[in-house]
Amino acid sequence: QVQLVESGGGLVQAGGSRRLSCAASGSIFSINAMGWYRQAPGKQRELVATIPSGGSTMYADSVKGRFTISRDNAKNTAYLQMNSLKPEDTAVYYCNAIVVTTARAMTNYWGQGTQVTVSS
Fold first, then answer.
1. Which of 5, 27, 62, 88 reaches 20 to 30 Å from 103, CA-CA?
2. What is the DSSP track for 85-109?
3. pLDDT of 19-72, one tens digit each?
């Protein structure tokens, strides 16, 4: 079994910054892509950013130039640095990882989510 635990959410003023972390643990052989998604009230979950094990990162147009995704492979951890936050960034942020388990099964995992609220 694999667990993803997010942290770093909270209340922040517009224009401020916040850093989210996502730590993966459990029966991990390797982690392919990791990503961040978000879901605002009444809206569908949407992709924010992804980072593969190798290759280029990808961002939603709405966060390009403001958010940066990174990962520490040694710690099985992904980060999302969010700058110049806007009220419309308010959402529950979810971590996602495509994990190859120790049983050599490739499985998609989600964290429990962390709330980010941006006040105007």
1. 5
2. --GGG-EEEEEEEEEEETTS-EEEE
3. 999 999 999 999 999 999 999 999 999 999 999 988 789 999 999 999 999 999
Cβ neighbours of 102 (radius 10 Å): 12
Where b means 16+ CB within 10 Å and e means fewer, 42-56 reads: eeeeeebbbbeeeee
pLDDT at residue 107 above 90? Answer: yes
Q: Identify any residues that bridge with 64 across adjacent strands, giving them in sequence order.
A: none
In the chain, DSSP finds a helix count (H) and a strand count (E) of 0, 11
